[in-house]
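Lab channel / #folding
Pinned by the channel admin:
"Please post every new chain as: sequence first, then the structure tokens as a reply. Keep commentary short and put observations after the output so the thread stays searchable."

First post following the new format, from NK:
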Amino acid sequence: MCSSDLVFQVYLWEGQNPVVMLAPMILAVVVGLAILMMWSDKHASLRSPFILLGTLAGLIFIGTGAYTLAQMLLAISRSSVESEAVITLIFVLVPVILGILALRVALQRREQTGIGPRVAIAILGLIAIFAWTGLYVGPALALLASIMPAYSSMPTQRPS
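Reply from TO:
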């Protein structure tokens, strides 16, 4: 069991509802996907396995930052703001930065996805594991994206 599992168990023991607890992460993923779906009509297809899995990994990483920030704000609402809150902000920034980097790698416009982006997304997935980012799902998706085909074999439909 890793630290994030233990922290999750503590929040459950504290009486927090698991759905409410994960709501910031779920919201970040859903809103991020909605924005990217609107954006992808004009710029890139999310139907590629590499792009889709890399994008999901990045959004889950960002969701981890949102989850941590929400827990910090909840703790501050029950106590006072202390200087140690800066440490928690670092635990918010690390997943967000990893998420932004994963999104940049996954959504870069390129003819073919070579070894560079694949290695980059794999490294981000490995860093995420050690940074306790993404509840195992995000790092697993990033690592899986690194070996997936770059483009879908399905033709894209153009609006008439």
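NK: Helices lie at 3-13, 18-40, 49-78, 85-107, 115-130, 137-145.
TO: also worth noting, The mean pLDDT is 85.
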